[in-house]
Design goal:
- It contains 32 helices and no strands.
- Helix 17 runs antiparallel to helix 18.
- It is mostly helical and about 550 residues long.
- About 75% of the residues lie in helices and about 0% in strands.
- Among the domains are: about 100 residues, Serine Threonine Protein Phosphatase 5, Tetratricopeptide repeat; about 55 residues, no CATH class; about 100 residues, Alpha Horseshoe (Serine Threonine Protein Phosphatase 5, Tetratricopeptide repeat), CATH 1.25.40.10.
- It starts with 8 loop residues before the first helix and ends in a 6-residue tail after the last helix.
């Protein structure tokens, strides 16, 4: 251009391809202006590349204007429009373009079908996908390895595992992508064992697992707790030199952490030369789930020191860690980070903040978070009710529950568990019994053993042991150890040996290895001066090798 040589259509095509590869939208627009001046806009190859450039640069409005002005639309231009809409997360428009292609009787090729099946998979459009499958069969493209893989993926993501399996087994040839797609299909459908078996079959066919294969298989092992299989996959990743790949490494950390092997997870994590936020999150959540809240907080501090940007999952893990060790100041610091990162309005993080503040003893901060939430769900309300219950604020709990009902928010069994727990801690017998009896007829919620344990605890605290025993005998669900333990705990507070002996006997009938029955009854004997009985019971427990937790 600088030396004044006039470009031709043969010049513009590679220039547009360069703009497309670099996603250089401004330079592409300048080239478009030159194309218009030179009168090359109507050329099929130039027009097709203009559409492709605008589509891949995310400017679908300009892509459509060029496309609409083209005198002839080749299949490649149509495919570029479909791909552009998919890349811009406008899959519904991509399907509209596909239908328009059919109306104009454009000869569809395998690229068209691969792209359209991708759109169907993203939208979960199973019926549309089946119609596309029929078109593929008519054009005898079902045996094409790329089309077949796309069909497997579409059926799997639309929840039709049987159809995905049918297509997979009918394919004459399969590559690593096809096998990876089928393994992912099994995993997403909850068929973890089948996914691992598919991985084994893939290797028997002589196909080498790729990075994607290792990631999917390790995630499957994590989901089903298959630690032994996970270790074998780890060994294979080492042999292939992929152990320290950031994606494979993160999946290994996640797999070991979820399977409870936190030390193995830590060893992989420390060896990784590059760690992304996913690997940090896996370690933090792994520590929290294993009860190592302090280690999770230390890791979060190290993460900040290395200037790794935390995400929503990071904050959830760290807030749970703060709540587990009652680290209020650290929790407030994380709250400030949440606000700084612009995720303070996230309902899940807000729920976690409420839980953290209540566990750290700051019910005021929990209330402020709850009141400032732009929207709330049942988890928010349950967390707040449970917080009030933990702090002995029975009447506040009742007011909050009544507000939930006025707002027509759904309540569940967790709501009533928190409510009954609050009444138990504040000895509001009338209210507790009223709501306990109202659960099924008014709210349609069946009482579980946990709800019965709360009402037994409430009756026991107020000295109504015989009434509590009657409630247990009349339970609509099968009585469990926790219910009798609640009664035995009340007997210990009141020093009632007779009822306590009956409760302890039922505990040991249900679980002979349960130490609580021995310990609580022994405490009752000791408190009422029956030291011989207490000593004999202790000796009996030792002889049966029942260990106290």
């Amino acid at each position: 251009m600088q030396v004044g040589v006039k470009p031709t259509k043969h010049t513009f095509v590679p220039v547009l391809k360069a703009c497309t590869g670099l996603r250089a939208l401004d330079e592409g627009r300048q080239a478009h202006a030159q194309i218009v001046q030179s009168g090359c806009e109507k050329d099929i190859a130039v027009g097709r590349n203009l559409v492709d450039m605008y589509a891949k640069c995310g400017s679908m409005g300009e892509a459509w204007r060029v496309f609409s002005n083209m005198p002839v639309h080749g299949v490649m231009a149509w495919n570029a429009m479909i791909t552009g809409y998919i890349n811009c997360w406008e899959e519904a428009k991509a399907l509209e373009v596909y239908r328009q292609m059919q109306q104009e009787q454009v000869k569809l090729n395998r690229v068209t079908f691969v792209r359209v099946l991708t759109a169907c998979a993203s939208l979960g459009a199973l019926e549309e996908g089946k119609l596309v499958h029929e078109q593929i069969i008519r054009r005898r493209l079902e045996s094409d390895i790329f089309v077949g893989s796309s069909l497997v993926n579409m059926y799997a993501k639309c929840g039709s595992l049987a159809d995905a399996c049918r297509v997979f087994h009918s394919m004459p040839t399969r590559n690593a992508v096809t096998w990876n797609t089928m393994i992912m299909a099994y995993r997403k459908s909850g068929e973890g064992s089948q996914a691992l078996e598919c991985f084994q079959q893939m290797q028997l066919q002589g196909l080498e697992p790729s990075m994607v294969t290792f990631v999917v298989v390790l995630n499957t092992c994590a989901n089903i707790g298959a630690i032994d299989k996970g270790k074998l996959v780890h060994a294979q990743a080492i042999r292939k030199g992929m152990e320290l790949d950031v994606f494979v490494g993160s999946s290994l950390v996640d797999m070991y952490a979820k399977c409870g092997h936190i030390e193995d997870a830590c060893n992989v994590f420390k060896r990784m030369p590059k760690r992304d936020v996913v690997s940090w999150n896996s370690m933090i959540v792994g520590y929290v789930k294993r009860g190592h809240g302090e280690k999770a907080l230390d890791l979060f501090r190290q993460m900040q020191h290395e200037q790794v940007q935390p995400g929503s999952l990071t904050f959830l893990g760290v807030l749970n860690a703060c709540g587990s060790v009652a680290a209020l100041e650290e929790g407030k610091f994380v709250h400030a980070q949440v606000l700084k990162n612009g995720v303070g309005s996230d309902i899940v993080i807000s729920n976690c903040l409420i839980d953290m503040y209540t566990k750290c003893g700051s019910i005021g901060d929990a209330c402020r978070v709850f009141n400032n939430m732009p929207s709330r769900d049942i988890v928010s309300s349950n967390a707040m009710i449970m917080g009030c219950a933990m702090h002995g604020l029975g009447r506040n709990t009742l007011r909050l529950f009544e507000w939930i009902c006025q707002e027509a928010m759904a309540v569940d069994d967790c709501t009533f568990l928190a409510l009954l727990s609050a009444f138990s801690h504040t000895a509001l017998l009338d209210k507790g019994y009223y709501y306990f009896e109202s659960m099924s007829p008014i709210y349609g919620i069946q009482a579980t053993t946990k709800h019965y344990s709360c009402i037994i605890d409430l009756l026991g605290r107020l000295g109504y042991l015989s009434e509590a025993e009657e409630v247990i005998e009349d339970m609509r669900c099968q009585s469990q150890v926790c219910v009798w333990t609640a009664l035995l705990g009340a007997c210990r507070l009141l020093g009632n040996v007779q009822v306590g002996e009956r409760a302890a006997q039922r505990i040991l009938e249900l679980d002979s290895e349960n130490a609580s029955g021995y310990v609580l009854l022994s405490n009752i004997y000791a408190a009422t001066g029956k030291l011989d009985s207490s000593a004999k019971l202790h000796q009996h427990r030792v002889q049966r090798y029942v260990r106290k937790q």
